[in-house]
Structures are given as C-alpha cells and as structure tokens.
Amino acid sequence: MAAPKPRSRSKASPDALRVASFFAGIGGFDLGFERAGIQTVWQCEKKPFCLDILEKHWPDVPRRDDITEVGADDIPEAEIWAGGFPCQDVSLARMGPRSGLRGKQSGLFYDFANLIGERRPELVVLENVAALLSSHDGRDFAIILRSLADVGYGVAWRVFDSRHFGVPQSRSRVFVVGSLRGPETAASILFEPECSDRNTEARRPDGEKSISPFAIRVGNSKQGYVKKLAHCLYAESARHTGTDWSRNYVSYPEGAVRRLTPLETERLQGFPDDWTMPTHLMPNEDTLDSARYHACGNAVSVPVAEWLGHRIVEAMASSHLDAQVSPLNVTPRSA
Fold first, then answer.
1. H helix or E strand, kind and range, residue 159
2. Fewer CB near the last or first residue (10 Å), C or N of the chain?
3. For the chain, what percentages of helix, strand and coil (3-state, to nearest 5) are there?
4. Which residues are catalytically annotated?
5. What is the pTM of this model?
6. What is the pLDDT of residues 247-257, one digit of tens each?
7. Is there a contact between 111 and 119 (Cβ–Cβ < 8 Å)?
8. 3-state secondary structure of 34
9. Candidates 3.40.50.150, 3.40.50.1100, 3.40.50.261, 1.10.760.10; correct CATH number of 18-193+301-318?
C-alpha cells in the first residue's frame, strides 16, 4: 500500500534556526522542532522504511544513511544538532543483560560524539530511554556527559514523560542538552523558572485509594475500550513485538480484543494521521503494519520535541548564541 499525498507544511523563515537531525527515525524531533519554527537542513537515518518516510515529508532535505561514513564536513551549517541515538543496548525492555554503550547499536553514540567534537554546533540535544541513567551503574551516562563537557559544552538533563505533553501515553525519556554558552543556557531550555502547585487535584477522603490511569477504560461498545493512559510503546522487546500489544489493546464487551492500529500508535506519539504510510509498496498488510508499529515505537514524541523547540528558540534568542562564544565557557580547539 502507498501513502496519500503528504500535507504541505509551513516554510521556515529565512532567519530560522537550523537543525541537523541524527538517528532521525520518522522525524519526531524534526516535526516538533519545525512546529517551533526551526528548519531541518540535514538528516541521517539507517532504516530503509524510515528513510522512505523522511523522503516523503522532507523531499528537499539532504540525508545520509550511515553515520559511521559521515564526515564532519558533510554536514551543512546548523546551530542545533539533535539525535535520539539507538536505545536497544540500554533499554530495560530487552529483559536481559544490557551491553550499554559497548553495544553495536547504542555504541553509535561515539560516532555522533566524534562529529560533535569536530564541528561543535552551538547546541546539542540528545534523547534516549530513561534506563540510560542506570546503564552500567550510571557509567554510560557519565561517559555521555563527559564527552560533551570535554569539548566545551555546559550540560543539563531531565526526564520527561510524554503523558504531560498532551498524549495519553506513559513514556519516560531522558533529554540531554549541551550548550556552548554554558550549563545555565542548557538548563534554561529544560527547566522552567516558574513553579507550579503540586496539590492541584482535590484531596481524596482519608483511606480512599487512588485509581491508576492504566485501570481506567474509555471508549464505547462499538469502537471498543482502551486504557485511559497507554503503556509506553515498545519498538523492540524480548517479550513483545510491535506496539507491545499485550499491554496496549482495544477490548469489546463480548470479550474480543485487538491490537492497536498503526493510526492509533501515530496518535499516541503525536504524529499526524497516516504519517507513517510509505510511498513505496510493501509486500503485504502485516509487513506494512509491523514496520509502522516499529517506527512509531522508536520515535520521539512530537509534542515533547515541539515544547523543547520553543524553549530552544527562546533560550538562544535571550542568550545571544549567535555572538562570539566566551572563552570562559569553552575548551579551546586544538590547531
């Protein structure tokens, strides 16, 4: 099956910030940043299915398919480099020993880090599963922070859950921001200065237990019932496949159940409808659905990326990152 003609999206202004997108997947970072006014100028992605989706939505953007063969001079000028490097070797979903950054997939971070060190873009944004924080007792995360700090970046990190950004999915991911203007600028992107009231919900009577949102069903008898809050969509796991449908499913009064459709998984990630419909024909419906499930499970939630994009635009404008970088905050580059 082939996709319908993609919807046109607004063009970036001539003075828009630019992002080079690494491990781009189906463009979660790219679409979210675009909605914040940031222009995608380059992409790198390995999987053929994802490359098809990127070509469909960004036909004029140059891209490469193997980061290990990318040279620093191959990447066009961009103030921001963003990438959700592979999580397979650090994810708890593997249900076994984790190779961490020593693994073949997650270890591609080192190729990314080498390119960052050579070009030193003004801002770097990384995304991965929250389990990265505990991989090899935290040593892998320390390597990531040190890799950025050693080439002059001030670093901040924060765990976000997609459920707090308007999509009904519990999806915790760690985001790392590195800024050549120091940790204050990095932190200003990830953390809001204002504080909110944690006690906004009405207090329940003493002794009444709270109800998990995973236990609340919404829907109707004709279209089926789903959990009010979906579990995290897994792309790959030792126990589950596709959308991890043993936990996320649609049920009916007579006892029938079904897995989520690709359209439903797109919506759980904040993508427009049919975003993952490819332009090239697939062998059959099952192959197509599996590819779409997998791509959505690997993606960055678009609303989270959009929120970050707006924060980046504000922070870079207020800190004047286009000015000469202060030598107090940057390790000098070797001649």
1. strand 154-161
2. C
3. 35, 15, 50
4. 87
5. 0.83
6. 788 999 988 99
7. no
8. helix
9. 3.40.50.150
